[in-house]
Design a protein that fits this description.
By secondary structure, the protein is an all-beta fold. The chain is about 0% helix and about 50% strand. The chain has no helices and 23 strands. The chain has strands at about 10-15, 40-50, 55, 60, 65-70, 75, 85-95, 95-105, 110-115, 120-125, 125-130, 135, 155-160, 165-175, 180-185, 185-190, 195-200, 200-205, 225-230, 235-245, 255-265, 270-275, 275. The strands form two sheets. A five-stranded mixed β-barrel has the order 2-3-4-8-7. It has a five-stranded mixed beta barrel with strand order 9-10-11-14-13. β10 and β11 (about 125-130) form a beta hairpin. The chain is globular and about 50 Å long.
Length: about 280
């Protein structure tokens, strides 16, 4: 396959059932209609909050009764913040929706290692781009990159926009990290040594659960999620889990919208928004 240049703009891509990715009737049950016309749908993007409710990808959702998970743990809607990146499944009618499940996952959990530019941070080997839309957690004062210090333990939400590059939508400081997390594009895969990189972070996956990867091991240009711990040397991340990143379950709806960056182009075939093939 031929990789094109990394696109530097965000897309909101509606994926209807005319695409082969959609299945037959396996989406969320329509327990609550919206004026009787709501259909099963899913939206993936960064969260905006306001008096009308929670907004993702131009759709404003009511969230009463929704099941919420943040970072794999059970949570409540009171914990959702502007700038979190969420997958919301439920019933959608135009720009309104009723959320049934809300799943929020970060893209980096690691150490602030450098500040190579006014709007760029290096966190766990990843270049993290910040802008005026990036939000910050409590305790970061001022609420900007100026409130961060080298060595801070950070949790970052945002979108992968190329190998080793993330645009941050939200940054929070942590007192401690129970694990390191990365979402990114695998490069420099060494099949014999069971290693690869995301950005400049070396990852050893010889003891990791890789059972969900399509090929059974990471491959170059694959978008993956990694969880693990730093090795004793500190320079290698010893993975315990490497998963492919995609929205396969969410595609089984009448409509799915994905906000993100084009990360791979195969001329004449299609492209990917994050890990989703279009």
């Amino acid at each position: 396959m031929i990789a094109a240049g990394w696109k530097r703009y965000a897309l909101l891509v509606p994926l209807a059932c005319a695409l082969a990715a959609c299945g037959g009737g396996g989406g969320p049950s329509v327990g609550v209609g919206i004026g009787g016309t709501g259909k099963p749908g899913a939206t993936f993007g960064d969260v905006g909050t306001g008096p009308r409710g929670l907004s993702v990808g131009g759709t404003t959702f009511t969230t009463a009764g929704a099941t919420v998970r943040i970072g794999g743990r059970a949570a409540t809607t009171a914990e959702i913040r502007a700038g979190h990146v969420a997958l919301i499944e439920g019933v959608i009618d135009g720009d309104r929706g009723v959320a049934e499940t809300i799943t929020i996952e970060d893209v980096i959990k690691g150490t602030l290692e450098a500040r190579p530019g006014a709007s760029v941070l290096t966190v766990q080997g990843q270049l993290v781009e910040i802008d005026e839309r990036t939000t910050y957690g409590a305790g970061i004062e001022p609420a900007s990159a100026d409130g961060l210090r080298l060595g801070d333990l950070l949790e970052v939400w945002g979108f992968v926009r190329g190998p080793g590059r993330v645009r941050a939508t939200r940054i929070e400081r942590e007192d401690s990290l129970d694990e390191l997390r990365l979402v990114g594009i695998a490069t420099d895969v060494d099949a014999e040594g069971d290693t690869f990189r995301i950005g400049t972070q070396d990852i050893d996956h010889r003891n990791a659960d890789v059972s969900k990867l399509p090929s059974g091991d990471p491959v170059n240009d694959e978008l993956v999620r990694v969880r693990g711990q730093a090795a004793e040397s500190g320079s290698v991340l010893e993975a315990v889990l490497v998963d492919p990143l995609g929205l396969d379950d969410a595609m089984d709806n009448d409509e799915t919208e994905i906000e993100g960056f084009v990360t791979f182009v195969e001329p004449g075939v299609g492209f990917r928004v994050g890990g989703v093939q279009v």
